[in-house]
Amino acid sequence: MTRSQDNPSVQELFLSELVAEPNRYHLYISHACPFSHRVHLVQSLLGLEDALDVTSVAARRHDQGWEFDEHDQDPLHKDVTLLSSLYERSRPGFAGNQSVPVLWDRQQNRIVHNDSAELALQMATRLLPLAKTPIDLVPDRSSCDIVELNQWLHTNINRMVYHMGFAPDQANYDEAYKQFFAAMDTLEHRLRKQPYLVGGKLSLSDLFLLPTLIRYEAVYYVHFKANHKTLAEYPALYQYLVRLTQIPAIYRTIDMAHIKLHYYYSHNHINPTRIVPQGPALSWLN
């Protein structure tokens, strides 16, 4: 996510309905981006690897936006080095934010979706017939609650931590700090009473919360000054993180080296030396 990405007024989106056809789509993500991560989690948990392959952009992000490099190359377009090129090919003169995730349609040869929340929902429902492990992440009886909670999480957790990190002044930081940690308290109380966010089973809402928790200790606590409490001081949230990251399909989506390199290198307005910390040691990851 960039500083402009969480401003809806500058968003121009690609929004199409997905079709359950094997190998039709290619998913571009950033291993660092929590909004990409929610979509990657759906792909991995449902076992959609054969139906929907994934490429990450490079960890380092420069002035030209998301890039591909020798480690993270675009397998579909060998001549492409910038994600912005795919936006331009899909919609010449595109004026929106060139964000990830991006869903590329091989048949139409263009981007067909780039809204992470809606894309995660469509992948969890419309692509379910292609799943090797068809987990119902949005059961009908809870679908309204899940969609409502996802919006709350997106606003108060996923985006709010960025409002802290990218705050232009003390007043904005203080307000974001207050709102984020009030939301964390709400989640802590909720998870003291139940194992998952909605009912007694894993749902799409858990995949919205989890990417922020995964990045909390290594990035947000220091880099974004989200330091009211350590994650261990939220015992229910911490145990929830430990339990979910032990699921192999979740664990294999985490690339902490990529995450840290992106944040500490790319956000040079926060970290001008671009020094990437060696720690912290994360027992749940190792």
Give an overview in words.
One of its GO terms (cellular component) is cytoplasm. The active site is at residues 33, 162. This is Putative glutathione S-transferase. By secondary structure, the protein is of the alpha+beta class. The protein folds into 2 domains: 8-130, Glutaredoxin; 140-266, Up-down Bundle (Glutathione S-transferase Yfyf (Class Pi), Chain A, domain 2), CATH 1.20.1050.10. It is 43% helix and 6% strand. The protein is built from 10 helices and 4 strands. Helix 6 crosses helix 8 and helix 7 (204-223) packs across helix 10 (256-266). The longest helix is centred in the middle third of the chain and has 24 residues, at 170-193. It is globular, with a radius of gyration of 18 Å.
